[in-house]
Amino acid sequence: WAAVSASGRFAVAPLTPADRQLADQFAGLFPAPGGPFASGTWTDNGYGPVPATGGGWVGCRLDGAREYGWALLVEATIETVELADPAPPLVHHRGRYRELAG
Fold it and tell me: How many of the other CB atoms lie within 10 Å of CB of 41?
């Protein structure tokens, strides 16, 4: 959050079922020596790092943020969209990873 609020920009990259370990590292559920960006290969796109092996991503401009219950509600404008080949999304539902039926 410190980096996003300082730069006013951020990237969002959907993950695939192959990215479960990465998702757990960012959630603090799996060890990430050196931080979650220390493992894997990343590409910097001007909005922030995205997984180099991932699909598409969107670049966003931060418009505002406010506390919302125990979380933070972030409002942003999508400025850039990079599409990739369709891939199934990583879905986390009721404490487990699931795959969508074809």
Answer: 9
**Can you tell me which residue has the tokens 């931080």?**
35
Collapsed DSSP state (helix, strand, coil) of residue 97? strand
Looking at the DSSP bridge assignments, the partners of residue 71 are: 68
Burial of 74: CB neighbours in 10 Å, binned 0-12, 13-18, 19+: middle
Per the rule left: phi > 0, alpha: psi between -120 and 50, beta: everything else, 18 is alpha
Q: Which two tokens stand for residue 32?
A: 């990430």
Q: Are 5 and 62 in contact (CB under 8 A)?
A: yes
Residue-wise pLDDT for 46-73, tens only, equals 999 999 887 799 999 999 999 999 999 9
Rounded to whole angstroms, how far apart are CA atoms 61 and 55? 20
Round to whole Å and give the CA distance between 38 and 79: 27
